[in-house]
Amino acid sequence: MQAIENDAYRNIARSVLEKLNKIYIPITGSSLDMEGLREIIDFVEDHSRNTEKIVKNNMKDALSISSIGLVSIGLLSLSLHPKDNPSELFPDDWLSPSGVNPNLVLSHMLNHLTNYGLAVQVLIEKGLDAQARSQLRLLIELSWLILALVYDRELWIGYVTTDEESESKFWSKNLKSYQLNRLLNDIEQGVGMDDELLETMRSCRKESYAMYSNVVHHSYTSVMLGAMAFSEESDYVTFGVFGEADNASKSTLNHLNYVLWYFSVCFFVIMEKVHGLNPKTPQRDFWFEAFALHNCFKEIYMFEKVRHIYGNTV
Description:
The protein is mainly α. The protein has one domain (55-310). It has helices spanning 7-28, 34-58, 60-80, 102-125, 129-151, 153-161, 164-174, 177-189, 195-216, 220-226, 249-274, 287-310, and strands at residues 228-230, 237-239. A two-stranded antiparallel sheet has the order 1-2. Helix 5 (129-151) runs parallel beside helix 11. The longest helix has 26 residues, at 249-274. The radius of gyration is 24 Å and the shape is globular. The protein starts with 6 loop residues before the first helix and ends with a helix.
């Protein structure tokens, strides 16, 4: 929240309030002046700061895990940018005959993926869980799209060469959720994990997508529940306007961390096992830091999953 500091805005607000006070004081017995307006803004701002403090304290572990994953992807985005080497990861003619540099496209897509994840984090910290879930749905879809494109070269070429007029047809023909799921099934076969874990990955992937679909489309259930915040300590439920610390955000963060883990594992499998690609100049930019953080994130995430299943005995 931001108080009104612009002099012109303040003059307009003052004039409006003076006119309204003359009309409504006899009716309501209440009035509002510029000082009262400032107090309202200050109250909301203080409430937001207090909410953020509570959320960061209650969910610091899950937030720290997602932070590592997001920084790893963000550093990949920076390192991939072809400003110094057009063929830094993918050969610059990978998307021929389009003339589009694949590393530039991937750098921009990873930029969006990172920032969607940051949006989820910030919204959760502000007590806006329903809004965080809508951003998480967009992150899920983008993560699937990136994996499908880097896996399937012809699909990627079609993606960058489709114009605005034919874009809807291309997406309808190639990039619907069931088509992306089929490609993801193929990718998962190359992860090198046992059948039970593969089935778990697929189940979680489909569950995450289905769970957040009703949030984006504002179903009756999501509208009614999304306006409420659930207390961690008791069965207390509060109306979440302006944001409230919400115990439901733990589930949102857990799904965010799963999606980031799933993306990171599959992305590096595609680079290594499908295309045999490595950075041309790993000593430059943030390649080492990105790879190191990827491995830290992967191991910490799995440690936390095992500890969640078996308790703190691990």
